[in-house]
């Protein structure tokens, strides 16, 4: 579900602005589900590939609503060499599912509301720490929110610049 950017931030903003102004023949982003919105954005190809590998397409295309903390491709590129390739292997499907569901909050939570939550629980079951600095900059577990409130028919996307890793399960 679901992680850098100066050049990429501009690209993402331009891309989403372009999607909003796209021809009237296409459905608006708010009429597309979360997976369709991500798939139609060139900067989320790694995320979409991971969602498919984790067999989470059906869930994220479902009724929801969900809030996806969506790492863009540049966020995945920041992972140590070989990490993404290993996560995409079938034998690591459960770990990939845990990472992706850690990027999903239940409900469609706007940026205005998400900053009030502080420690919301993710679909994965662990919490994320949301902080806002004096300048209004929002971080989630230290990842910068670079674009907020991208609408989808079954939720909302907040773009982040880092892949969030859930805490290791306690034995």
From TrEMBL:
Entries under PROSITE patterns matching the protein: FAS1
Domain FAS1 as annotated: residue spans: 31-164
Signal peptide stretch: 1-22
Keyword Signal: yes
Record-linked InterPro entries: Adhesion/Biosynth-related, FAS1_dom_sf, FAS1_domain
A GO term from the CC aspect: extracellular space
UniProt protein name: Fasciclin
Organism expressing this protein natively: Photobacterium rosenbergii
């Amino acid at each position: 579900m679901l992680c850098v950017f100066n050049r990429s931030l501009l690209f993402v903003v331009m891309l989403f602005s372009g999607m909003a102004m796209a021809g009237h023949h296409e459905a608006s982003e708010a009429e597309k589900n979360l997976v369709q919105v991500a798939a139609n954005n060139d900067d989320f190809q790694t995320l979409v590939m991971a969602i498919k590998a984790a067999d989470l397409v059906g869930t994220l295309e479902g009724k929801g609503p969900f809030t996806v903390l969506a790492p863009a491709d540049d966020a995945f590129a920041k992972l140590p060499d070989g990490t993404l390739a290993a996560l995409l292997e079938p034998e690591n499907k459960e770990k990939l599912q845990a990472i992706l569901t850690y990027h999903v909050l239940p409900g469609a939570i706007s940026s205005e509301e998400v900053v009030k939550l502080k420690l919301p629980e993710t679909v994965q079951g662990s919490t994320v720490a949301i902080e806002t600095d004096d300048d209004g900059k929002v971080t989630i577990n230290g990842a910068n929110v670079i674009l907020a409130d991208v609408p989808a028919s079954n939720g909302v996307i907040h773009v982040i610049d880092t892949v969030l890793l859930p805490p290791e399960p306690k034995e």
